[in-house]
């Protein structure tokens, strides 16, 4: 039985995003965190850790087509608070079109200090990352987290998802607390959200 036109209209943007992701992954597989955009449940789980009532910026690393960005807005985060750091120029254009009030920064999130040095007007209330951390050497991961903590207010979360069964950043970093969500089995592939806070 064919889908009603309203259901087809809702499915089309998701399908378009999946095609964009797949095309970008084929062209540059190591630059992409995933072959497909994050599932809704995973995106909502990440957004859950962000304070919607703060006025401080929320930095999203590797937003792609905006699956997590949309979940942040649904959570109540004002679009004007969003700073979206994206490497892919095609995704940057898409993000500017979809989220005109957000600040889209085309840059390398793995060089976060350089990318954000003149962008933030105040310490961030959260850094939300969709980057493929487990594909990077541990020193690169640790540098990213260090730079994220420099941009964050004290105690504010660095939020990262991973498909791996081990944490993307060691749980034993000095002065850093760690928590993890339950494994999100409804996501393909299943994922877990890790949250790091420096005190």
Automatic annotation (TrEMBL):
GO BP term, example: methylation
Matching InterPro entries: KsgA/Erm, SAM-dependent_MTases_sf
Domain of life: Bacteria
GO molecular function, one term: methyltransferase activity
Pfam families referenced in this protein's UniProt entry, alphabetically: RrnaAD
Record keywords, A-Z: Methyltransferase, RNA-binding, S-adenosyl-L-methionine, Transferase
Protein name: Methyltransferase
Native organism: Bradyrhizobium agreste
């Amino acid at each position: 039985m064919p889908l009603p036109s309203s259901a087809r209209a809702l499915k089309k943007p998701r399908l378009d995003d999946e095609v964009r992701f797949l095309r970008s992954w084929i062209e540059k597989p190591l630059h992409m965190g995933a072959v497909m955009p994050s599932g809704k449940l995973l995106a909502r789980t990440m957004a859950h850790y962000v304070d919607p009532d703060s006025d401080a910026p929320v930095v999203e690393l590797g937003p792609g087509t905006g699956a997590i960005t949309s979940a942040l807005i649904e959570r109540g985060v004002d679009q004007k608070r969003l700073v979206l750091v994206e490497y892919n120029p095609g995704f940057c254009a898409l993000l500017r079109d979809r989220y005109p009030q957000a600040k889209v920064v085309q840059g390398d999130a793995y060089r976060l200090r350089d990318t954000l040095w003149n962008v933030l007007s105040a310490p961030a209330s959260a850094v939300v990352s969709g980057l493929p951390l487990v594909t990077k050497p541990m020193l690169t991961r640790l540098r990213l987290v260090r730079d994220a903590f420099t941009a964050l207010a004290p105690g504010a979360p660095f939020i990262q998802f991973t498909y791996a069964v081990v944490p993307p950043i060691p749980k034993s970093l000095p002065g850093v607390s760690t928590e993890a969500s339950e494994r999100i089995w409804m996501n393909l592939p299943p994922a877990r959200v890790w949250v790091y806070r420096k005190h």
